[in-house]
Automatic annotation (TrEMBL):
Domain named Cleavage stimulation factor subunit 1 dimerisation: residues: 12-64
InterPro entries given in the database record: CSTF1_dimer, CSTF1_dimer_sf
Top-level lineage group: Eukaryota
Protein name: Cleavage stimulation factor subunit 1
Species this protein is from: Nephila pilipes (Giant wood spider)
Length: 69
């Protein structure tokens, strides 16, 4: 079993995840929180508003429950 918090493991995936979170926060109207998180993670280029994270999570939940439509 590999540890997911080992240095260098999953770096690109985590960076992508953080960008999705920031974009979702902007999309949902949480600008202050999104800007703060963006500054903490030093995301470049800036993240545009997007609901892609919501769509991915919804798809994952439906798949996990066996209700893929």
């Amino acid at each position: 079993m590999t540890k997911t918090n080992e240095p260098g493991k999953g770096y690109k995936e985590r960076e992508h995840l953080y960008r999705l979170i920031i974009s979702q926060l902007f999309y949902d109207g949480h600008q202050t929180l999104a800007v703060s998180l963006s500054n903490l993670t030093k995301t470049q280029p800036p993240c545009p508003p997007s609901d892609r994270l919501f769509k991915l999570v919804s798809l994952g939940i439906r798949t996990e429950l066996g209700k893929l439509v």
